[in-house]
Description:
By secondary structure, this protein is an alpha+beta fold. 27% of the residues lie in helices and 25% in strands.
Amino acid sequence: MMMSGPQRSIIALLIFVLILISAAFSQNPPVPQPVPLPPATPAPVDKPYPGTIGLQVDLTDTVRGIMSVHETIPVAPGPFTLLYPQWIPGDHSPTGPIAKLGGLTITADGQRFDWVRDRVDVFAFHVTVPKGVKSLTVDFQYLSPVRSRDGRVAFSSEIADMAWDMVVLYPAGHFVRRIQVSPSVKLPEGWHFASALTVASQTGNLVQFQETNLETLVDSPVYAGIHFQRVDLSPNAANPVYLDLFGDTPASIAITPEQIELHRNLTREAEKLYGSHHYGHYDFLYLLSDKVGGVGLEHHQCSEDGSRANYFTDWAASVDDRDLLAHEYTHSWNGKFRRPADLWTPNFNVPMQDDLLWVYEGMTEYWGFVLTARSGLSPAAHIRDRMAFIAANYDLSPGRTWRPLIDTTNQPTVSQRAPVSWVSWQRPEDYYDEGLLIWLDADTKIREMSNRTKSLDDFAKLFFGVNNGSYVPLTYTFDDVVAALNRVQPYDWATFLHTRVDQLAPHTPKDGFTRGGYRLSYSDTPPDWLKHVEETNVPPLADFSWSLGFSVGGEDALANVWWNSPAFQAGVTPGMRLMAVNDETYNANRLREAIVQAEKTATPIKLLLRREDHFQTVSLDYHGGLRYPKLERIDGSVDLLDAILAPAK
Length: 649
Ligand SMILES: [Zn+2]
């Protein structure tokens, strides 16, 4: 049945009248309206901020680890937004420690007035500056964690690691290199300090630094402490480099003359490699502590470094830490002076784009390993073992079948650098170590194609060695990297890199080993350095990754379980505590012995595991014996790898 036009009009009119009547008599609430967004934060522009910000930090509360901040900020009347740094250079992620900020008050001419935190961007604080006010006084505290479960402890009763991004609120609307700051710090009585900043004056324990821009300031942290020693590592007078040691105790900074020489070799080898430097003086800020958390964070003219208190005193136990300084030092060239274009952001609250981290971190990891061997900080054999471990772990990591390497560069934003449960499946930050293997692949390829007349060293000089003495960042793109490689050795480098970085690569990139004269193989005995590290670590460690598929860490808890390994197949997860092996209390030697015995029989290995109050027994039908990765020389092949790791001529 169909209605005529006039009939439809009458019905529509009746419905309209009924709606009007029901609306007039009903008590219905009004239709909800969307809540308006907070006022927009001004975007940064490349214009100087008028006036200089005064920034004073008081570090004298060594008991509670509270850093008190006092700022004076020149302003004009009207809406005004203060930002707390969110995207911290070198972290590659939005991890500015905003949760540690407390006690914020803003006053002008002695009168306190309200601030409002942005409801969407919690790193922004809005105020309205009244007419006639020319300067705001901003006070707050940075509440450094006093226990590790609250975050990295950066301030103990002996040492403070003070990064300026923790202790500054800055005006929105300007590039940070156009905002001038006059910084000062009040130290605890008797404390020493070190920084890449230039000191303007010092009165007692009050240190006034020279005025600088906010970009340089945040890139120039201050270490302070009661036990301090400064060691000159300059390779020559024109290239001043210092090792600034801060320790829990006087013993922890007692570096021996032999150790000094090895560290000085590092700066000599770096000078030979890069043929340039891009700092006035470089300071390794190095804390040796069991109280303050370890760290490795690059800056242009210094680095924040941290190892355990026994780094120098138990030299054999620190073997895995010895590439730390070489890695962070290399960042002065790769990451700071030469910087991926999309990582050079106008201020600390504009998101970073991390897609070139396989160059920024991957190549730095490569040069970190190479310089550690060339300087003698680690024997070449140890560096070869480390490379073997990396490749063997990737062979155990099926995450390669779903996640291309390029996607791992998003991980700092995805997880904000928090640990993940299934490393071999999630492969969170493989751009570091897989990047290393790719650059070894490239280095050996150049050496092979050029008949050993060229190498990645030539790339380093060409790419990083320009503009000697300049501090002004020179950005780079993928095409710049490819062009420089082609200048060293013509080849289809774009395809070489795209294949390894952007496409799924289920097989571990091991061509660098075979071209270098080595192959990955396995031994049933661990190398001596690994035995020492496992036994002396607190808590002791034991690694069964390449046999049963797990490693054991603190309180006998499983640190890592490899995806699809015998342990994984049996339902074992990270975090479970290993209680017993074949019905006897677990210890690492007992499990090693059980693996050796199982090689000769068909009997499975029985493990008793505990997760909270639940106990679980699993049987691992594994008979492959103990396995530790190593690089094995290929007889008769050209030995490029040893040439790479030998001191430069
Ligand atoms: Zn790095």
